[in-house]
Amino acid sequence: MDDIVAHAFETERKNVATAVTCYMKEYNTTIEEASEVLWNTVENAWKSMNHEYLTLTSIPSQLLLHVINLARMMETMYKKIDGYTDSTILKDWISMLLVEPILF
Q1: pLDDT digits (tens), the chain, 104 positions
Q2: CA 6, CA 12: separation in Å to the nearest integer?
Q3: CA pair distance 63, 74, nearest whole angstrom
Q4: Are 87 and 95 in contact (CB under 8 A)?
Q5: For residue 76, is it left (φ>0), alpha (ψ between -120 and 50) or beta?
Q6: How many other C-beta atoms lie within 10 A of the C-beta of residue 59?
Q7: Cβ burial 5-34 (10 Å sphere, 16+ → b, else e)
Q8: DSSP label of 103
Q9: Distance CA 77, CA 84 (A)
Q10: Could you write out the DSSP letters of every residue in 57-73?
Q11: Contact at 8 Å (CB) between 42 and 5?
Q12: How many CB atoms neighbour CB 35 within 10 A?
């Protein structure tokens, strides 16, 4: 998700190849097509995680819950912005969640 959202920034820095760039070169597609395919991959991963959590498997549900919570955190950080690079919005979200009181 980070590579999809931060593709323009990472390309501008010419620091590393992103998943979007690699997909574009491998399959000879546009940025939009590559991004769409990668977002679909993220959606399919969510479906797979939810399916595994909701069906009885030999993997303990508490372990699966930790994996799902990690994925939730990653989605929060990278769905619309590169939350690692531009952490000011994340700071506001964390402040709202943990510091500011909830009025009843």
Answers
A1: 566 666 666 767 776 778 888 898 999 999 899 989 998 998 999 999 888 888 877 888 888 889 889 888 888 777 777 767 777 777 887 888 788 877 77
A2: 10
A3: 17
A4: no
A5: alpha
A6: 11
A7: bbbeebeeeeeeebbbbebbeeeeeeeeeb
A8: P
A9: 7
A10: -SS-HHHHHHHHHHHHH
A11: no
A12: 19
Per the structure block, which two tokens stand in for 14? 């010419």
Residue corresponding to tokens 């069906």:
55
Write out the two tokens for 21: 């760039």
Sign, CA torsion 12/13/14/17 = negative
Q: What pLDDT, on the 0 to 100 scale, is given for residue 89?
A: 77
Report the amino acid identity of residue 75. Answer: E
- Residue labelled with tokens 């955190």: 73
- Cα–Cα distances (Å) from 32 to 25, 74, 92, in that order, read 13, 22, 30
User: Which residue is it, tokens 């998700």?
Assistant: 1
